[in-house]
Specification:
The chain has helices spanning about 70-75, 100-105, 125, 140-155, 170-185; strands spanning about 30-40, 45-55, 85-90, 95. By secondary structure, it is an alpha+beta fold. Bound molecules: adenosine-5'-diphosphate and magnesium ion. Magnesium ion binds near residues 70 and 71.
């Protein structure tokens, strides 16, 4: 099986190519690294000695045919699977994640293709799901939640009514809401 591309073959520590005239941000420190990661499932080697470095400010695309191991690598980076060989480093320190919650606590946030948001709830409720601002009575502070959602989304160039049910937005906008949510949980690596 061909390995997922951009990963083992990534030039210069995996930095993405940029169109001419577009200046790259200064190469930051390594945020997240996979070092010689291997993962086998019964009857198949999903990842064989895969290394990858994500530096501050970088965006990578992981490309490969079906079964190349893309999902497996992402699942290892986000604590869904544990590597059989090799390991991860976060901010230069070796880390291991026994479960997704541990990766999340470490600042690694994932947005799945199938956005894991609640379609019938408002944009603001989705952004603040599980960590809604509350008033002194313990009730959700909707005014503050709507204001903060608008500010957050404005920062991404998305101008939507925070009261709007999520399902009324297009899929692209929904994914941007998921991204804004992920970033607002102080994620280091998205
Ligand atoms: N949970 C699993 N159990 C058994 N085999 C798996 C599991 N997850 C992935 N695989 C196998 O590992 C290989 C890589 O799969 P995957 O990472 O999903 O590839 P991709 O996302 O690039 O399509 C495939 O051969 C797949 O069948
Ligand atoms: Mg996949």
């Amino acid at each position: 099986m061909a390995p997922p591309e951009a990963v083992p073959h990534a030039p210069a520590q995996g930095r993405t190519a940029r169109p001419e005239g577009v200046t790259a941000p200064p190469a930051g420190d390594a945020v997240l690294e996979a070092r010689s990661v291997s993962k086998r499932f019964p009857g198949v080697v999903a990842l064989d000695d895969v290394s990858f470095t994500l530096r501050a400010g970088e965006t990578h695309a992981l490309v490969g045919e079906n079964g190349a191991g893309k999902s497996t690598l992402i699942k290892i980076l986000t604590g869904v699977h544990q590597p059989d060989g090799g390991g991860l480093r976060l901010g230069g320190r070796p880390v291991s994640f026994a479960r997704p919650a541990e990766a999340q606590r470490a600042g690694i946030s994932t947005i799945h293709q199938e956005v894991n948001l609640v379609p019938l709830m408002s944009v603001a409720r989705n952004v603040f799901l599980g960590r809604e601002p509350r008033n002194r009575l313990g009730l959700i502070d909707f005014a503050r939640m709507h204001r903060e959602t608008t500010e957050l989304l404005d920062g991404f160039g998305i101008h939507v009514d925070p009261r709007k049910p999520l399902h009324m937005l297009g899929i692209g906008t929904r994914q941007m809401v998921a991204l804004a949510r992920a970033v607002s949980v102080d994620a280091q690596a998205v």
